[in-house]
């Protein structure tokens, strides 16, 4: 029972991170694109309106994932975040400026204010995407964790795979941000954005970067498929391959400018990537890339049964309600904005 | 060195975060009052007030949110040992806070910020209610975590593992310490906001800008100040009696300026004592001021001096809040979890240079944020009602 609750909590952390990222990428993308495609205030306001409406609600999913890691796996939480100390503060800096810029860009009409805020909106988005990409790929392919420490070298979580992950998120933000603009019926702006991402070849980078992530070219030898479950069931390799397939479709549909199809392939690709990642690290909550048995497992670090029961009950009751009203918000405003 | 830096960083970031928290807690209550009145009477004056103060809410809420995330992540980065020891108990309130409270606040404040002029009156009211409920729940859960650290009930300390293990949710939830803190903190937040709303209203009344409308908010603010200022010592007194039983050393610091704990330096209890007495003196001033404004309400509008006084009063409730927290947090030293774990045992082992890096980064950013918030808030206050200048 206790262990089962631990595994469920682990799954829900993965789910919360996924729900966060899948919504964050389009919204951040809109922000990043603002300095490239929206020179006028009127255009920027349109972008702000389709990003700002959702951004706070989306960010809470990140807090839930981080908070749940704290709650369900306290030791792993402390070890992960103190281990990635500097990247964690870069993430915070990005979150601070993204959060403020999208809300406050038009709270003052001085051109200088708007200029710097729109720049902050774009740059914080790029930084946020990069750090998140590095973070997730490190979760999936392991941290350089040994003797209860990640060492004092702040660059040690950067590897070919994790940097590719960071770049992949930036590239996806450009593409899915474009799609989000299109889906929100802003045709002139989405045409400009499509022009940009095709002209600079951004759409072609997706499968290439994702392949680098999958190959797990690392400071070490671990990849997304070297975990226990993949070794025991080689058929699971179909999952990351399927996600690669969908990321190839993202490129293909971007080439054809088919917004709904790009979005669908993106959601499927990203979800399969997360499922592969979380299956790959099982049973570790902190996966070590330098020595498997140095990692921290779910059972080793899970909270007491009482704590897990309380959390599970709350999650079981509240999570569906949250999904319902947040989902309804998208439906309601998509319909309303149509008129 | 590492311990001092980690403590400094936490104190700095939490104090900065708390500049925005009480103001937004109080503001959403004012907005709720105005929005209700608007819903019932259809009077445009209330809508103007609701939009105006709602805009101030959004600005400060944005700063509150981003500085709040720093707090969550910081438990992992700088207080890994504390997180390991405390996770079993702290985790649940934190998750409940995010799920119940943050989602409500964030989802609906997005609607308020970006669509309030395009939705129906009923939807507007529902939106403000949802933000209000979210704000209250958020305060409740984070305080229940802090209440546990002051008065650890509902869990047992496993000495050989160096961590607490959760045993009873109801004991944690009904911890009297938390409820006293919850009441005290919310009243303080309402009081603080009363002062700010009064000063803003007086400013506009003096410059004869929508006088009738701002007289409404000034009157409500005056009553809010008086009622919350009188309630403070009543709650505070029973709160003190309770503390005397569970944290006698804190009372010792407050009354005698000394501590029985050998780790505590001689200066700290004196600071606690001074902070406590500053808070009570300020509390008395607030009651007198509230009485004056309510009794001589009709004169108040004409008085240029009172407008100035109201403006210069604004820092005082902030100081009272900070001194209150100083008593709460310094008064429980050396414990991070009272009588269980010491602050020095809670820190992460990270290189000192990295903590220095984060402190410098945070100080630079927060100074910038402070000026941004100040600039935008003043600008929004001076601007008055949207499109009606």
Characterise the protein shown here.
The complex is a heterodimer of chains A (339) and B (389). Chain A is mainly α and 339 residues long. Chain A has one domain. Chain A contains 13 helices and two strands; from the N terminus they run H-H-H-H-H-H-H-H-H-H-H-E-E-H-H. In chain A, helix 4 packs antiparallel against helix 5. Chain B is mainly alpha-helical and 389 residues long. Chain B has one domain. In chain B, a hairpin with a 4-residue loop joins strand 1 and strand 2. The longest helix of chain B has 40 residues. Classes of the chains: A mainly alpha (339), B mainly alpha (389). Chains A and B meet through helix 2, helix 3, helix 4 and helix 13 of A and helix 2, helix 3, strand 2 and helix 13 of B.
Task: Write the topology of this structure.
The complex is a heterodimer of chains A (339) and B (389).
Chain A lengths: L1 H36 L3 H32 L1 H10 L1 H20 L6 H31 L18 H24 L3 H13 L5 H11 L12 H5 L5 H19 L2 H23 L2 E3 L9 E2 H4 L3 H34 L1
Antiparallel strand pairs in A: 1-2
Helix pairs in contact in A: 1-2, 1-5, 1-6, 1-11, 1-13, 2-3, 2-13, 4-5, 5-6, 5-11, 6-7, 6-8, 6-11, 8-10, 10-11
Chain B lengths: L1 H40 L2 H35 L1 H36 L5 H30 L4 E4 L4 E4 L2 H5 L2 H31 L4 H36 L1 H9 L10 H29 L1 H4 L3 H10 L1 H16 L4 E3 L3 E2 L9 H32 L6
Antiparallel strand pairs in B: 1-2, 3-4
Spatial extent as radius of gyration of chain B: 22 Å
Alpha-beta classification of chain B:
mainly alpha
Strand order of the largest sheet of chain B: 1-2
> What is the number of independent domains of chain A?
1
> Which protein chains make the most extensive interface, counting residues with beta carbons within 8 Å of the other chain's beta carbons?
A-B, 63 and 72 residues
- Write down the overall mean pLDDT of chain A: 89
Largest sheet of chain B: 2 strands, antiparallel
Straight-line distance between termini of chain B: 55 Å
């Amino acid at each position: 029972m206790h262990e089962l609750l631990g595994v469920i909590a682990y799954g829900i952390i993965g789910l919360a991170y996924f729900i966060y990222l899948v919504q964050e990428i389009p919204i951040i993308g809109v922000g990043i694109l603002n300095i490239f495609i929206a020179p006028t205030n009127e255009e920027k306001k349109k972008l702000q309106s389709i990003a700002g409406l959702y951004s706070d609600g989306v960010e809470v999913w990140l807090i839930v994932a981080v908070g749940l890691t704290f709650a369900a796996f306290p030791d792993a939480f402390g070890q992960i975040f103190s281990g990635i100390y500097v990247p964690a503060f870069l993430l915070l800096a990005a979150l601070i400026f993204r959060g403020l810029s999208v809300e406050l860009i038009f709270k003052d009409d001085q051109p200088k204010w708007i200029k710097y805020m729109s720049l902050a909106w774009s740059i914080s988005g790029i930084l946020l995407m990069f750090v998140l990409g590095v973070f997730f790929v490190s979760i999936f392919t392991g941290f350089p964790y040994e003797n209860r420490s990640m060492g004092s070298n702040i660059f040690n979580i950067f590897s070919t795979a994790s940097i590719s992950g960071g770049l992949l998120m930036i590239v996806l933000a450009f593409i899915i941000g474009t799609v989000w603009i299109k889906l929100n019926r802003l045709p002139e702006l989405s045409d400009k954005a499509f022009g940009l991402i095709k002209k600079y070849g951004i759409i072609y980078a997706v499968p290439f970067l994702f392949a680098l992530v999958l190959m797990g070219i690392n400071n070490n030898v671990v990849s997304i498929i070297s975990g226990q479950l993949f070794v025991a069931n080689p058929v699971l390799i179909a999952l990351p391959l399927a996600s690669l397939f969908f990321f190839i479709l993202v490129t293909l549909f971007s080439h054809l400018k088919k917004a709904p199809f790009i979005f669908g392939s993106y959601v499927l690709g990203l979800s399969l990537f997360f499922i592969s990642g979380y299956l790959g690290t099982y049973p570790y909550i902190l996966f070590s890339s330098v020595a498997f048995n140095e990692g921290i497992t779910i059972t080793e670090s899970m909270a007491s049964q009482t704590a897990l029961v309380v959390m599970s009950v709350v999650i079981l009751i509240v999570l569906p309600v949250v999904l319902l009203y947040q989902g309804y918000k998208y439906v309601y405003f998509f319909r309303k904005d149509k008129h | 060195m590492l311990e001092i830096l980690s403590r400094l960083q936490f104190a700095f970031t939490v104090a900065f975060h708390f500049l925005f928290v009480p103001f937004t807690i109080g503001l959403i209550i004012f907005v709720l009052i105005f929005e209700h009145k608007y819903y019932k009477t259809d009077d445009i004056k209330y809508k103007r007030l609701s939009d105006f103060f709602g805009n101030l809410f959004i600005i400060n809420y944005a700063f509150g949110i981003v500085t709040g995330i720093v707090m969550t992540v910081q438990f992992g980065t700088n207080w890994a040992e504390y997180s390991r020891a405390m996770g079993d108990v702290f985790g649940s309130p934190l998750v409940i806070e995010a799920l119940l409270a943050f989602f409500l606040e964030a989802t609906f404040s997005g609607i308020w910020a970006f669509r309030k002029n395009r939705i129906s009156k009923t939807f507007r009211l529902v939106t403000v209610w949802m933000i209000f409920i979210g704000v209250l729940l958020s305060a409740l859960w984070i305080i229940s975590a802090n209440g546990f650290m002051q008065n650890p009930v509902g869990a047992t300390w496993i000495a050989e593992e160096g961590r607490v293990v959760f045993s009873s949710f109801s004991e944690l939830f009904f911890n009297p310490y938390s409820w006293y803190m919850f009441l005290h903190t919310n009243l303080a937040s309402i009081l603080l906001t009363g002062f700010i709303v009064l000063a803003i209203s007086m400013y506009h009344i003096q410059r004869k800008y929508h006088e009738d409308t701002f007289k409404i908010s000034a009157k409500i603010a005056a009553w809010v100040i008086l009622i919350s200022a009188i309630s403070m010592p009543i709650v505070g007194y029973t709160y003190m009696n309770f503390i005397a039983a569970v944290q006698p050393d804190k009372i010792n610091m407050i009354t005698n300026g000394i501590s029985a704990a050998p780790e505590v330096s001689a200066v700290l209890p004196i600071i606690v004592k001074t902070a406590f007495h500053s808070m009570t003196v300020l509390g008395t001033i607030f009651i007198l001021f509230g009485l004056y404004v309510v009794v001589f309400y009709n004169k108040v509008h004409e008085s240029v001096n009172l407008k100035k006084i109201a403006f210069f009063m604004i820092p005082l409730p902030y100081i009272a809040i900070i001194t209150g927290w100083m008593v709460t947090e310094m008064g429980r030293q050396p414990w991070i979890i009272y009588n269980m774990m010491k602050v020095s045992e809670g820190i992460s082992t990270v290189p000192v240079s990295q903590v220095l890096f984060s402190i410098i980064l945070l100080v630079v950013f927060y100074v910038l944020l402070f000026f941004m918030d100040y600039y935008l808030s003043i600008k929004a206050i001076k601007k008055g009602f949207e499109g009606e200048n």
